[in-house]
Structure formats: C-alpha cells, structure tokens
Amino acid sequence: MDHNPPVLKLKMTFIEKLLNVAGILSFFGIILYVIATWNAIPNQLPGHYNLSGEVTRWGGRAELFILLAIGLLLWFGMTVLERFPHVYNYKNLTEANVKGQYINSRMQINVLKNEIAILFPFIIWNNIRVARGFPSSINTWFFVIFLLILAGTITFFIVRSYRLKREAAEVS
Question: Which residue windows are coiled coil (predicted)?
C-alpha cells in the first residue's frame, strides 16, 4: 500500500479549525496594529538579532512587509500541503492505519504552520517596540523556547504516528 496511497477526503478536526483561526487572527491583528500605528513607527527598525537578542542590523519600515509576506507565504504554502496528506512519506501504511496517519500528519503540518503564524506577527510587534525604545522580547530564551516548542511538536506527532501504527497492528 505504501507505493500508491489512497486519496481520502477527510474533514478538518475542530483543533485544526481552531488553530487556523488563531493563525489568521494573529496575521490580521498585526496588520491592523501596523496600520493603526504606522505614523508612530520609526523609520528604522531592527532587521536582525543575534542569539543574545541584540540588534545587529537596522532596516526600513518596509521590512515589516517582507516579514509579513514571508509569514503569509509559509502559512498559505503549508495550508496547501495540508490538503495532500497522501503525498507525504509514510512507512508501513496499511488500510487499518491510513486514516489515522493522514489525520496525524496533517495535524502536524497544521500545528507547525500556526506556530509559525504566531511567530512572524510576534517578531513584527517586537521590532516595532524595539524601534520605539522598549526592550526586546527576543533573546536567547526566546530562541530556546521557540525551538523547544517546534521540537516538541514534531516529537509529539512522531510518537503519535508510531502509536497509531502499533494500535492498527494490534487490531489486525
């Protein structure tokens, strides 16, 4: 079955819908914030931070749109990828576990996508705050925590995938 996995039409779970709303709201929220505060945003904003959270490059206000565009491009790209769980790489896919594996892998993409959807608006918000003279919320701990969240998400879904395989094998 691994060579020609079936194409299944699976409804989005409540969690996926909820996370999508959170991701979309984070983008809309930052867009509204930028529009509402545009005249108060300084011309120079942080463009890059080192691992200690110190600004190592400054750039213009237009860079806010580059960050927003990258975040939105990732969000929409991963949204498209979610729709095709049958093209992902699976091991030991069977008729007994195919539905569970598809939902699990699709949810993994969804969670990662929406974690990123919250990250980019946060960085934009932080850049505006730093440009206004407030301390940065991006520092070593920020990077560590965000990487732990991503690693935790990936680990959770890999473990869940193995459990789904094992449960399907026990039922067969």
Answer: none
Residue 13 lies in a domain: no
Number of domains making up the chain: 1
- Distance (Å, rounded) from C-alpha 96 to C-alpha 26? 37
| Residue 132 Cα distances to 31, 36, 37, 42, angstroms | 18, 15, 11, 7
pLDDT of residue 172: 64
CA distances from 35 to 21, 142, 161 (A): 21, 26, 43
Residue 39, domain member (yes or no): no
Q: What are the E-state strand segments in 1-69?
A: 44-49, 55-60
pTM comes to 0.87
**Residue 130 class from Cβ within 10 Å (0-12 exposed, 13-18 middle, 19+ buried)?**
buried
What does the radius of gyration of the chain's CA atoms come to, in whole angstroms?
A: 20
86-130 per-position pLDDT tens digit? 988 887 788 888 999 999 999 999 999 999 999 999 999 999 999
Lowest mean pLDDT among 18-22, 68-72, 142-146: 142-146
Give yes or no for residue 138 having a pLDDT over 70: yes
Domain range for 122 = 60-171
Query: Does residue 27 belong to any structural domain of this protein?
Result: no
